[in-house]
Records
---
Amino acid sequence: MGQLIAAVIFSSLAAILVIAFLGIALARAGKKVSARTTLFAGLLTGLAVFMIMALVSSYTVVQAGSVAVVKRFGEVVTVFEPGLNWKLPFIDQTVVYRTQEIVYETSDNPSASKADYTDFQVDTATSDGQQITARYTVRFRIKPQEASNIVNNLGTEPEVVEKVVKQNSRVWVRTLLRNYTASQLYSGDIREAQEAIAKQLKHDFEAEGLELVFFGLRQIGFTDAYKQAVENKQIEAENIITRKNQAEQAKYEKERAITQAEAEAEKQRLERIGVAQGEAESIKLKAQAEAEATLIKAKAQAQANELIAKSLTPDIITWQAVIQWSGQYPTVLSNGGGEQLILPGDLFQSSGAGPAPTPTPEPTPAP
């Protein structure tokens, strides 16, 4: 309705200006001013201006990633999809909502953020009383099918962010972080807290026609005093670990020295055993070699004796006996029983030997 009133006023002004311009121009030209003519020209101009404004107001272009809710006399009549849409001029009004992801972000310097909507970080406390600050990011969408309800219940997009996204996220972040100790949040393991907050926001957003795409705790800030206390505690813990490692290292060095000494002693023992075994093996091999040499020598002597024995004939033996005879007769012994014994030692005694014994006359047997 406001657009219609504005169009009527603007058209009327245009008509009045045309009438005044024509009247002044004709008067300066010395021509007779016709009220009917000037009035007609003014009305025609006003009507033309009104029609142009009506034509411009009769359509709207909805960009991709957006929807437009059409209100007629304050009542929602339809929702325009992206593209060219026609509407009643001056009467139908549109409220545009982005259906793309919208980013709301808190930080210590909102002016430096490139999010769609920015705000300051949230102050709260942990379950053990430590003061902290929370910086987080919320990404959400406005559901196109819920646009009519949103325009009736919440208002425009900035009003949706203010009433739902901002208020609910800051409340839940401040409230739920109180369930955790400072050490839990300081260690960086904040996934549990993040998931708890996201669960609550998702429920709230669904009830208002919004879709939660992502919630993330970017940083938890602590006081300088707490940071220093944690740092001192960490240093002490590291010192304890260092001393423990040193003790373990000393124990290891001791065990290594013992092991090394035992290994050296075992090495020496094995070396002694090896030397003794080597000597025994050497003696064994030497004995085996001597035995084998003796055996070979005995076999050679036996073969020689065998060859000599084969080569001896009665004539050779007799001949050798004659050559070796010293000219002495052999000693003949009798045992009185008719048996006689010739001593072979006298027979084969060399010529260089001492005087031969005198032969004993053979006794004459009794008649």
---
Amino acid sequence: MNISSTVNKLDGLKRSVKINVNKDEYVLQYKKDLDKYKSTVKMDGFRAGKVPENVILKNYKDRIQGDTLNTLIQSSLKQALNEHNLDTASPPKITIEKSGSPDVDIEYTAEFEIFPSIILKNLTDISVEQPDVNIGDDDIDGVIKNIQKQHTKWDEKKEEAQTGDKVVLEYEGTISGKPFDNNKQENFTFIIDDDVRGDDATVGLFKEFYKNSIGAKTNMGKKFTYKMPESFADKKIAGKTIEYNIKIKHIYKGMAPELNEEFYKNFGIAGSDHKAFKESVSKYMKVELDQKLKSVMSAAVNQKLLDENDFEVPEYMLEQEVKSITSQYESMQQKIDESIKTELGLIAKKRVRLNLIYMKITEDNKLSVSEKDVSEFIAKSDPASQQQILEKIQSDKDYLNHIKNKALEDVIINHILSACKIDKVEKKFSEVVN
């Protein structure tokens, strides 16, 4: 095609290409489009393919010119991008200066973003920590205690609450006498002095609830203050002193089940003793540990890739990812304030950067997934998940592509782990799994 084009570098990854398409190209394409209409248009009083040209032009001239212009823009833009080795990361925005005719060239400008030029740090220079876990008797006994705890029978009591009791209360928090978002709850439930995981604000607040529940009785009301840490995500209440009013609604005493044949039967181990139950728990722990180690190693690899490789991110890709994450968040009926918006933006940027790194590793190392890789990926799932995956693949053709992408992620992670340095660090089962 007879075209000329020039590239202009704009801010960041933005580029614009000014393209001129010779009028001779317009004449050739216009004739093709006109002939197409002449062979297909049906009009009253004429046989198909026999409508006179002047009648077609009277009715369809603007549409034919539009078809010609669109076709020439698409083909000329593709040619120009190839000539300048430009790989677009966003849909081109077209501005037409001249629409073209038998006497006038087509002139237009396409503005878009390109993919960043990424030079990855050599994988052999990257080191990743790998937890080295040996499941011992203490670990197994700890899991069995947790299983007992999960099957605790709770009976309501009238006596004072103490460590280990389950408490149900209602609370309301105020700052200088004024309410704030999500400041109250009707049936807040916890076990006094139970382990709490989370940020400093969550752990600290739970401890205050524990402390102020010990010695309390049903229907008793109490007040306490808690200064929210400066690091708390919601900046409207971070660093503020909150006064909490609580009222105890219920107190329950727990009784853990005995480890006996009846208890083992609940786990499908009828007629077994403690040794058999322990072996069963140990097998489950190994499966859980393998799944967790895979997740931990993937997360460690991803963080290393992000830490070691810096590059610009296309704004369009970032905007699309923010929209996707925001939509997922809203579907869970979560309220989005400014702090959440900022957090979602950071997550989106990490995802886009990681996707671009994955694309680069895949391209550089010619990685791909075979049917065998997909089958092995599905086989690694538990039996219930395998069945769900297979059923969904049958009903949703797009879901197979989703599984292929997941399998490709595994191929990429395994490739990285085979190339980088692995530093083994001794850890307990509970440290990794919890």
